[in-house]
Design a protein that fits this description.
178 residues, alpha+beta, six-stranded mixed β-sheet, two-stranded antiparallel ribbon, 5 helices, 10 strands, globular
Length: 178
Amino acid sequence: MATNLLKKYNEFLEITHLNENQRTESLKGVFNRDIADNLNFNFRLKVIRPLKKQGIIDMENLFDHLTKRSEEVVDEEGKIIKSRSVFDYDRSKRLHWIWYHIQEKRKTNFEVFSVKERKNGHDVIHTYLFDLDEDYVIVLEPQRSKQDYYLLSAYYLNEDWAKKNMRKKLKRKLDQVY
């Protein structure tokens, strides 16, 4: 498990042989080092923060976004709700890539761009860090103040439709990075 703290981009974390508790402990070690406890977790001099839930910074929610995928679940009343409870091996084994990309160490086949999108009936700007060779993307959202970012997610584009969608976003990129 401690060997995962030694992994570098573009190696994968070793998590397949671990049970669920060991895997979570190992991933939390990487997450805490690179994100939660990293005082320099900034992108282009702007602090990156997790989203707040009910006014509280929610590192656990961010950890889930970076290691699990969402699925639709039907509740007791028959309503479809999204649940982020399914472990995502592809996201998790690349968890340590986030800090590498945030620092913009990758110099080729790497795009940083912002695009205006619709979200819940509103226009929002998202900033993407897109590793074209590895089909890996990090999604940031500038805070309203434009002083900091929220880290929304990071994931591997493991479906053809997702790769095409990201390339469409790239074609619609704004003139500046927000």
